[in-house]
Amino acid sequence: MTVSFRRFLRRVVTNPLFWVLPAQAFLFFWRLDLLEPWGDELFTLETAPQSLQHIGSIVANNIHQPFYFYLLHFWIQSPWPGSLLIKMRAMSAVWGLLATIIFYVLWVRKEERSVQKSFLLVWTLSPCFLLYARMARSYTMQLTFALVAIYAAVRWAEQLRNRRRFLAYVFASAALLYTHYLPGLAILAATSLTILLRRERRLQTRIPAAAGSAIFISLLYLPWLATIRSAVNNWVSAGGYRVGGFLTDQIVRIGYWFVSFSFGETFSTAGFLLGAAMMPVIVYGLWRSIGSRPNWFGAVALATGIGYLGVSRWSGFPFTPARVLFALPFFLMFFIRGIHLAFRRSSLIFGLLALAYVTGIHAYFAKTGYLNKGYSVPYEEMAGLIRNGSVGQNAVVVLDTYSSIPDPFLQLIPPKIPVILLGGDDSAEQARKAARSQPVVWFWRHTHDTSPGKFVTGLEDELSQGRRAVTHEFLPYSQPEQWVLRIVRGPNPPAYFYQLLEIR
């Protein structure tokens, strides 16, 4: 073994990524079929296998960008073992590993050794990153291109006349826009604002730089500008998703986002208690970091704020973390820096945080304690009950669409069994007629009734009257969730998330 090869081997083994990437890969790739596909993943499953021309038409009509779906179309044709769902989720996992490499190379390795070690520990075990890196969605691809775009933007803002840095920013931003418009527009707007607000440079330099970069990016994105225009128009006309009033919605949304980034979205009772104990420490770490802001802070904070404004009007609070996932590594780095500044024995803090993360990982693979239970709905188990319970008998299935997304469930219900989607008075009357003529009625609903006047609950009681009803329950609420539900909804909250009523 030559001396040069030994040196190379030593450098490889001593590089933190040599240990981080295998651990992260194990978590990302192990049992990729653990969870059944949820609503948005179902769209991916149906779209990616189509022809490229058809994919372009589908995603344009759905206000999506094409790059991820085009790339996934070719990826699933590779000899990767497993089902179509596993192949699609595997590509997301690969992008997640690539994001780890890029963030380490561009940012982490420039930090102090103690901060590097703490970040890599937290990042490797992050339940939030684990959740989204295993989905058949473009989240990790967005994250990877966003990291490159932010780095290029920060570097170019330091030397506005540097053509190489300018081109690196322009092409990285265009690639991100072709992946998803929300982080692309957020980073583009944040970069332009950062440049315009830098008073150390003349206004005659700042304005052409900001405008010129936007024009160049628009030219590269010209074929899909109409899609962004449609998305912006829909955003302007959207009524927004609300939990109570505007203020309540913002509190819930920001709180959910903070919990997701800090501890993930899967909890056991022990993890909940650990998280509650660690939350003040993380908040204090964020506050202490403000005094020593790194050079990327302004651009990232602006992009995150703009991204939040976009998602807060367009989608429900459980989907906020996914839409601004590009901010996750910076968020973790920021509070980690603050904890090292504030505490001498920071290793104990990060040990407890790692323990909280391990409990979250365990809850993820045990399919318990999901904050967004739509990610872990056992559609196949529920459909199996319907198939087995309807053998040799006429039956009808009634699905509540007010509080649930029934599309994944519809894929599994036998075609010979008629399905009624509850969405108003007409569908309710159809359900009544079917109940009078069919010996078996399956009534699927969310236990939290959000229908107008709670008519779903009233219809359930009406259809059950005078008949034998058996309740099948799914996705139990954990003890901490029941504590929260008692505070939010009052006494006697439901013990389960979904119920399937068998009426005979």
Structural overview:
The protein has 504 residues and is of the alpha/beta class. It has two domains: 20-373, no CATH class; 377-503. Helix content is 65%, strand content 7%. The chain has 24 helices and five strands. The protein has helices spanning 3-14, 17-29, 39-47, 52-61, 67-75, 84-106, 113-125, 127-133, 139-158, 163-179, 181-196, 203-220, 225-237, 246-263, 269-289, 297-314, 320-323, 328-342, 346-366, 379-389, 407-410, 425-437, 455-464, 479-489; strands at 395-400, 419-422, 440-446, 469-476, 496-503. The protein has a five-stranded mixed beta sheet with strand order 2-1-3-5-4, covered by helices on one side. Helix 15 crosses helix 19. The longest helix is centred in the N-terminal third of the chain and has 23 residues, at 84-106. It is globular, with a radius of gyration of 25 Å. The model has no long low-confidence stretch (mean pLDDT 91).
